[in-house]
Write a structure and sequence with these properties.
Blueprint (H helix, E strand, L loop, with lengths): L1 E3 L7 H10 L9 E5 L2 E5 L3 E2 L4 E5 L5 E5 L6 E3 L3 E13 L5 E3 L8 E13 L7 E2 L6 E7 L2 E4 L10 E2 L11
Parallel strand pairs: 1-2, 2-5, 3-6, 4-7, 5-8, 6-8, 7-9, 8-10, 10-12, 10-13, 11-14
Amino acid sequence: MTVKLAPLGNDAPFIQAAIDALPALSTNTGGTVYLPRGIYRITSPLVIRTGVRLVGEGQRATRISSAAGAGVITWTASINNVLIENMYLSGSSGHIFAPSGGNADWGIVTTTVRNCWIVQSDTTKSIMHHVSALDYDNVQFLECDLQRASGSTVPGFNIINSGGAANENRW
C-alpha cells in the first residue's frame, strides 16, 4: 500500500496516520508511505515499525524537519526490514533516529537508510542513538550525506552506543 501526502503545517499526525494504516509485516505485505516533494514539519518523532518503507522524491526534494524538542524517527518495539529513502532529514533538538524512551531491548535489524541528507543541528545529540551497541544488526546508511552542527560534543561519526562513545566500526 502506498499513501501519498501533501505538505501541510504540522505534518506529524498525517504522516503517522499513514504509517499506522499500513498492513503489519506479519501479513507479508508491509507498505510504503510516499512523501512527494515538499517540506514536512513535525513536532513529534515519527514512529516506525517493521516493514515500513518511508520514501521521498530525493535528498533535496522531500524534507522532514523536526521542531524544537523532537527527534525525527523513533520506534516502540524491535524493528526490521525498514527502508528510509530519498529525503532530507533535519533534527533540531533530538536524536535523528532513537528508540522511544531509549529501551535497550528495541533493536534494529536489516534496515536501510538510502540516498538521504541527514542534518543534526543540536551539538549534544546524535544521528543515531541507542543505549546498547548490541541491538543493531545489518543497519546500513547508503549514499547518504551526514552533517552535524559545528562544535558538536558528540564524538566521531555521530552514532553512539551506551557508553556515549562513537560506534563507527559497526557501520
